[in-house]
Amino acid sequence: MKAKKQAMTQDEYYRGVRMRPYDLVKELAIAMAGIGVLTLVLAAVFSSPDVPPVTIASWAQADPVDFVTTATGELQGTTTSAGYGAPYNNGGGEQSWGPIAPQIWFGQRISVDSADAFVIQPLKYASTGNTALGSSLDQWSSASPDQQTTWLKNYSDALGKATVSEGKVQVADGEYGPLPVMMNSLLAQAQSGGLDGLLQVNGKFYVTDYTQALLFMGDGSYLDGLATDANLTGDQWGMMNETGNYPGQTWLWLYTMWYQVWPFNNDNGFLGLNAGNADLGIVILMTVLTGLLALVPFIPGLRDIPRWIPIHRLIWKEYYSPKIPA
């Protein structure tokens, strides 16, 4: 009788007394809806601005003088991309530290001739049906290197006082050869959006390679000005920021931090590491630090730091507290 009563008590316990109706699907739906609403609210309050993409067309429309000045620099070979070196060209601007020179080791893998890719080839496309531009390109190609250098220097100097009128860049009268016609034709092509297409498509069906467009825009001051306004430059910790100084990839802080300290922010530097080869120097430093982190359990002294400085005992003080026998 006692066993039967105990069995009934267990039956009541498991099937009636302590059980309640529970709709798992309903709770999951409520949880998902709550999380969705919370995500939308937080995204509206804390998300970074939806800044439209920067294009060559927007650059040429906003600052025609900077665009023409940059294009002239491409012909002169004085821009950053023209002297970048591997992997784009033979400009000789590769970073190295003693015998360590990965850029030179891997060589020129993405061929970019700044003058030809950003100026001459687009103008040749645009010269179809444009007699004036075709004649200007013929005059340019048939001129001697010394003559081209003279035209470029004169035109580059005159751009310092250039004005914009009816969408064209105007300079004082001078010996510029065909450059005014060439540069204003390239400017018109860029403002219409045609140059974006030429540099991005580059004979490919799927447009996923923005290398040439970014190199060209990076040679001017317009893109850098936008980055400065958005707190995205290197000395503003830009790699780990979003537009408008919103926090971005915080896991990059350790990498970005080194650009702010000596010797990587100094032209003189130390032991050959300086601002000029900071990218390579920081990659080497982070590789060494990552290796040390992986080898912590095997390095005498370093592996003993937790024992000498037992911060973990403060964090898990309840676990490490003396146990009183019961």
Radius of gyration: 32 Å
Number of helical elements: 17
Oligomer: single chain
Number of strands: 4
Q: What is the average per-residue confidence, as pLDDT, rounded to a whole number?
A: 87
Query: Structural class, judged by helices and strands?
Result: mainly alpha
| Series of H and E elements | HHHHHHHHEEHHHHEEHHHHH
Determine the strand fraction and express it as a percent band.
under 5%
- Unreliable segments (pLDDT under 50, ≥5 consecutive)? 1-5
Question: What report would you give on this structure?
Answer:
Helix content is 54%, strand content 3%. The chain contains 17 helices and four strands. It folds into two domains: 56-227, no CATH class; 261-326, no CATH class. The model is unreliable at 1-5 (pLDDT under 50). By secondary structure, it is mainly alpha-helical. Strands 1-2 form a two-stranded antiparallel ribbon. It starts with a helix and ends in a 6-residue tail after the last helix.
List the helices and strands and how they pair.
Layout: H1 2-17, H2 24-46, H3 56-62, H4 64-76, H5 102-106, H6 114-126, H7 131-142, H8 145-158, E1 163-165, E2 168-170, H9 179-191, H10 194-201, H11 211-219, H12 222-229, E3 241-242, E4 246-247, H13 253-257, H14 278-294, H15 305-308, H16 311-315, H17 317-320
Helix pairs in contact: 3-4, 3-9, 4-6, 4-8, 4-9, 6-9, 7-9
